[in-house]
Fold:
Amino acid sequence: MTLAPGLRAQLMVMVEVEDTATKIGSGDVPVLATPRLLALAEQATVRAVFDHLEPGQTSVGTRAELEHLAASPVGTHVEIETELTAVDGRRLTFGFLARDRHAVVARGTIERVVVDRDRFMSRVTR
Structure:
């Protein structure tokens, strides 16, 4: 593995109806749902380390902390940036920030663990 703090990734999304709390069921307002925002942040963490894992390895989420600070209505472009801030053996810690053109939408941390994909899946399919 060539994992070291400082690896970064970002992604830009436009909030669609399918991304809203109303559609997902996490609320009843047509704005970016917190669970969808977390999924996007996790997607960015996966991107940040994808090219730095050994063949057969992947990372799985183990912990997330998200502070959702501002609502993003349908049509809003949201950028999610993530940075690998710590590597402790197989444990990876990321910080992330999501913003639109008006404000910081969310911030938080995500922890992932590097695993052997086949061994991981063999435990799942008991």
Observations:
- Helices lie at 21-24, 34-50, 117-124.
